[in-house]
TrEMBL record:
Lineage per the UniProt record: Eukaryota, Metazoa, Ecdysozoa, Arthropoda, Crustacea
Protein name, per record: Uncharacterized protein
Disordered: annotated span: 1-51
């Protein structure tokens, strides 16, 4: 019984680990999004400069 309990515990641990991994992934995604946004902003700025 206790063995199975520890097994489930380790399972939950791995689950939480995967959760944190997905969280970091989403974070990096948002970062890249903001980067692309700033890029487009600079592009529009250069466009106005040419006018």
């Amino acid at each position: 019984e206790r063995e199975r309990e520890r097994e489930r515990e380790r399972e939950r641990e791995r689950e939480r680990e995967r959760e944190r991994e997905r969280e970091r992934e989403r974070e990096r995604e948002r970062e890249r999004e903001r980067e692309r946004e700033r890029e487009r902003e600079r592009e529009r700025e250069r466009e106005r400069e040419r006018e």
